[in-house]
Model the fold of this input.
Amino acid sequence: MDPRNRPQKGFRASRLAEQSALEERFQALPSAESFKRHLIALTSEPHIAGTPANDRVGERIAAAMAAAGLAVETYPYDVLLSDPEGEGSVALVTPIRLPLNAQEYMLEDDPYSSHPALGPGWVAYSGSGDVTAELVYANYGRREDFERLVELGIDLSGKIVIARYGGNFRGYKAKYAEAAGAVGLIIYSDPKDCGYTQGPTYPEGTNMPEHGLQRGSLLTVSHTGDPLTPTQPALPLDDPAHVERMAIEDVGLPEIPVMPLPYGSASQILSRFQGDPVPDGWQGGLPFSYRLQGGEQLTVRLRVQQERQMRRITNVVGTIEGSELSDEWIILGCHYDAWGFGTADPNSGTAMLLCLCDALGQILAEGWRPRRTIKVAHWDGEEYGIIGSAEWTAQFAQELSPRVVAYINADMAATGDRFGASASPSLKQAIIDATQDVQRADDASSLFDGWMEDAGQPERPPIGNLGGGSDHVGFSSHLGIPATQLGLSSPCPIYHSNFDNLYWYERFADASYACGPTLARVDGLLTLRLAQADLLPYDLPSYAVDLRTHLETLSERAQARDLEASFDGLTVLAERIEAAAARWVAARDAALEGDTLTSDAATSLNQALIALERPLVHAEGLQESAWARSLWACEDPFSGYAAWMLPGLRYEIETRSPDGLERWKGVYARALTTLAERIEGLVEEIEAQ
Amino acid sequence: MDPRNRPQKGFRASRLAEQSALEERFQALPSAESFKRHLIALTSEPHIAGTPANDRVGERIAAAMAAAGLAVETYPYDVLLSDPEGEGSVALVTPIRLPLNAQEYMLEDDPYSSHPALGPGWVAYSGSGDVTAELVYANYGRREDFERLVELGIDLSGKIVIARYGGNFRGYKAKYAEAAGAVGLIIYSDPKDCGYTQGPTYPEGTNMPEHGLQRGSLLTVSHTGDPLTPTQPALPLDDPAHVERMAIEDVGLPEIPVMPLPYGSASQILSRFQGDPVPDGWQGGLPFSYRLQGGEQLTVRLRVQQERQMRRITNVVGTIEGSELSDEWIILGCHYDAWGFGTADPNSGTAMLLCLCDALGQILAEGWRPRRTIKVAHWDGEEYGIIGSAEWTAQFAQELSPRVVAYINADMAATGDRFGASASPSLKQAIIDATQDVQRADDASSLFDGWMEDAGQPERPPIGNLGGGSDHVGFSSHLGIPATQLGLSSPCPIYHSNFDNLYWYERFADASYACGPTLARVDGLLTLRLAQADLLPYDLPSYAVDLRTHLETLSERAQARDLEASFDGLTVLAERIEAAAARWVAARDAALEGDTLTSDAATSLNQALIALERPLVHAEGLQESAWARSLWACEDPFSGYAAWMLPGLRYEIETRSPDGLERWKGVYARALTTLAERIEGLVEEIEAQ
Done:
């Protein structure tokens, strides 16, 4: 079905004109000037979580939201971070002594690159240590890469592993290296993945130069958030209600030292390798044949001295209280802490949200009030491991679960002109609708048209699955709340480097600062529709479509893993959901068009809609994580970032456990049956009107 | 006069045969095996003063001397050293970031080069700091080099100075750089002075390779010894008699960070200079035109974190008590602390002394006893600033002054086959005599013949003036005791690098270990003659000859400095001394040959001889140092190491002070008059026999 033929936005016919006027007024308001002003103010200095510089950014955000008319509250937590003032170094010891550079150059072109607060390369939660050892190259340091090394008979014990960025969350590179007995890990940015192989390098081009490197966190504990408070909010230690912290040594943080390097420095190591040629696909972009072992003649000293410290982080949340349905919340969010200036990551998203706040503030000033409550959350400590948002969702789980209509994430969201979205099925149609009604910055066509054009006009708009890696996870994976990450972006190969700054942004992301207000219109429309709708415009048919797709994918994956697996029973449930969802859409649209709903009925239906997906929350949690409870999606527990769909089933397939798979099929059957029953209940309820 | 026509050794005719037999027996004893065994045992690990490794070396020395039959005593002091475990680094910051290597490579050829206790380059008493600045090249960093920079209008304030090793003691480079307003100093070994310009580099040749660097101390306070106890011995803090220490901040230690670099690293800095061409004589051996200023585009970060700490050092002194004249002492000495293994510097001297102890031990075992007391001192903490010996001479000044016949220093003394000597005039003839009676290791000719051959057959054997830089200064400069530094050496361009080890020694110094026993014969003969002589064989004529030479040199220097200066009055005194000395020689030789001296007369004359030079000790001290009191010689107070002769006069010439010169001529006239009178008194006394 052409999605443009489903423009239903959840409004009674009698309220469509009012909503249209509101949307028209709103769309005129987000401005490049506002976005630019906020982005410049937010990213004038590097601001790592837990530092005074980041506190200043938080205060700036609070002031900006207050000025826009939002009621601002702050939520402090004391969490375990790493001291960014630690020390790390990598040096060849033999055959020659050669200390290696681990910090970006100061560039004449880029005035930000010489900011005195910029520091050398490091990764948070590295172990501390001082090791000198031979080396092994481990490609991307993925689970399969380490398995391949085992197959090849290469012993990693006592070695320093050197792996390139990409393919997984860096924390897994460290986890697997340590598990394999390595004494240290160097992670470098290979030119093939993000450097000159991709095109001219910074500052001539946008790609990573030989001296640029990626910072980041190594946190891979089995829950998300503060490492020391797995199931509890990490309330400040001076708060009488604070929970006792785990002992740091019980957390399972990395013990080996880990350092990131730019490829100009990694090249000094890899070019001296004398071992076996690498397998297919392992060759990177440096100008020599990659080899697996460094050999005896090559030793490197890797030294990291990094303290783990309790530090204060603070979420800043602005609220526009709903006038009618104040207990139904639409939450937008983005973290504000960064590894450097954070102009792209994350604060293009922050500035977009503040630009949106300015626009909402204007219509508030003009007398409007939303029906539902709108919250704009600026999370802290995301870079260390999605800490601020996870603590907040832990602290307010009981309130959030029955209240939150949707969570809209904006991490790193406004860096270019290509629209992208990942979302829970229930939000897909509303996202599509919003993009159809927002104009592209550079021509008169809709964002939707550009999006479909960029994607090669696929049958369905290419909305991705929501995996891990940002602040939606507390909502989506832990609480089972519909969530989305929306963005207008361009490639950012200088990700987590000191070059993610306003000079890079103006030169390679968006010199006109147009993407910020454009995305603010999308987020704003989505928010205004969710906030004002008579019936929440959840996309129930997509659940069925996606479910079937995911079951098919799992079947293929099981086949590839040589595992007997039939999902026929679940496919039947998908069909049942599909049928019910179609009936729901028809009945809902009829009710809205005919304007036949009582207010009480709408309230009851909306409450049921909000509760609809909660059966997909598995109280005991998933196999790899008691914290990740959504049966629908989670992040790949073996690599981070990427989404695993129907993860309870996926896990048993990946671990090739037929018994487990049967057990989990039962879990899914029960949950999906409940979901089907609930949709059927909704249909009955609306049809009874 | 041909010195070989003055073979008088101070013995009565009747004792010559006994002495000859003793010398013959002694000369058969020093062995390469003993020297080699000691050198290997002493230099098996790096042993910096104040560390457990150096304590182990001290214990080994004590055991070796005890085994040889000497009575061993130890003299501990608690002194202010620097923690060798500090940190230092140099890195380009702009135009590119480039951390620079500051440690020698591990070489396959040289097994010592990979010893785990070897550390990176550093200089003791560096200031701690972290500075990033532009650069100026200051040639050798001598006083005249800094003066030249001022003339050229080059402002050093806020700059990092880079200077090459050579031309002065490195501490003065730091002192002048700091005084000129520099914020840091890099000292590097230029290939022209010690590297490839001189010949093949280590390990192919003996010259400094691109990764070799010179460690050392920066101490230039106005006294010698522990910085915190200028006039007192630094007795251990747990000794009830210990003196109160000065506050560290009152000492005048360097405040700026200072780091040594190898030329491979310095080249990365100097090759990027963009300023004015250097003056004549400032060009080094790196393959580009040297320039004065780095320019704005070039900045370097220099970081030193180095703690100053109270640490324990321990002198180890062995004694062979004199059988007849136990209060007349001949002291031999060498320090034992080193910056690394110390095979050449200093322990080739230490091993030579232990080889000599073994030989003396053998003749002791055969029943011999010396007439006078022989002491063999192994000093600690010399590398930091001649601390161990200076504390000992401070502690025992009252006992040493009337007792010590001569101090014979052996710092770094046995590294090759070229004989060299610096000495007080009174020891010159005895040194010459000893070299005439010792055979060269590789042929049957005398060491004297080789020495004269190497020197191009000069009129006088080329015995240098004794300046600063080693453990003789407490004796010569502070107490005015006749002293000498004797050695058999080869060039040591890897001085104070990690390559001063047994591999270098066997390859480039002396594979046969013959120089140790050969020098032990020279030191031993000199010692046995001084210890056994009926009349101390002081070389009084040389005082007159040297005095005249020094006065002539001062005249020339005054002229060069445009200073009116006549030394006629002092020249007259030189003539008076010459005449008296000639009479003394004649009378002494007659008395000895005629065997007419009574034992009491000899005792009285010897006491007078020991006291003879004490008038040359100026109680108030010299202009630049109250500690340096000898009017005869001191180290150049503007550059270290080099000798200043008649330094009270020299200082006034250098500072162009006619009034001061007149005043000091008076001081010298009085002292030299007393010296002349005392020699005349000796002559009268002996002629009265």
User: Anything to note?
Assistant: The CA atoms of residues 214 and 495 of chain B lie 6 Å apart. The two ends of chain B are 28 Å apart (CA to CA). The domain at 28-82+310-532 of chain B is CATH 3.40.630.10 (Aminopeptidase).
